[in-house]
Design a protein that fits this description.
Number of strands: 9
Number of helices: 8
Strand order of the largest sheet: 5-4-3-9
Number of domains: 2
Helix content: 25-40%
Oligomer: single chain
Distance between the termini: 21 Å
Order of helices and strands: EEEEEHHEEEHHHHHHE
Structural class: alpha+beta
Shape: elongated
Radius of gyration: 17 Å
Length: about 180
């Protein structure tokens, strides 16, 4: 991964934080940038605890979520580069199923978001195929809607997963060493 260079010096972050469903970075030279969490498939459906469990690596040039197997370089955030999304043929059917489950349960997007512990915007984006969410998230939606469906792998193993959360507006950033 190549670091962004400004005047032949590597730009490093002094702080990363997650607030209002966005990943923020502040650089040594005073710039701030943010990208939506929903741009990154592995982060889009993550719990708040998982999102906040990141590690800063590479001397402030990389943010890594070990539990989610995701990492973003500072240049990705500074340049607003979205993550790779699956092909539309995979996104459309899941988006339609999510919306169908919600409608069958008679829930609004706001009500479903409250049950999931996420934002209404994330529910809307997932139903429109604008935010890629995985099978695990689809299973959580199914449980929240009380629709028939296979239990999530964690439930089969007797381990319940924490409710889905997106970083709250008051989430605090981590200062770098």
């Amino acid at each position: 991964m190549q670091a962004v260079r400004l005047n032949d010096e590597e730009v490093k972050a002094v702080r990363f934080w997650i607030k209002a469903s966005k990943i923020h970075v502040e650089t040594e030279d005073g710039r701030e940038a943010a990208v939506p969490v929903a741009w990154y498939p592995r982060l889009a459906g993550a719990s708040e605890n998982d999102l906040l469990a990141f590690k800063v690596m590479g001397g402030g040039r990389l943010i890594h979520w070990p539990g989610l197997e995701e990492a973003l370089g500072i240049e990705t955030i500074l340049h607003g580069i979205p993550g790779k999304q699956p092909p539309p043929a995979q996104i459309g059917p899941r988006a339609r199923r999510l919306k169908a489950m919600r409608l069958k349960a008679g829930l609004t997007q706001v009500e479903l978001a409250q049950r999931l512990g996420c934002s209404q915007a994330l529910v809307s984006m997932a139903e429109k195929g604008r935010a890629w969410v995985g099978a695990d998230w689809e299973e959580r939606v199914g449980r929240a809607c009380r629709t028939a469906g296979a239990p999530a792998p964690a439930e089969r193993a007797g381990k319940a997963k924490p409710p889905l959360r997106v970083a709250a507006a008051g989430a605090r950033g981590k200062a770098l060493p």
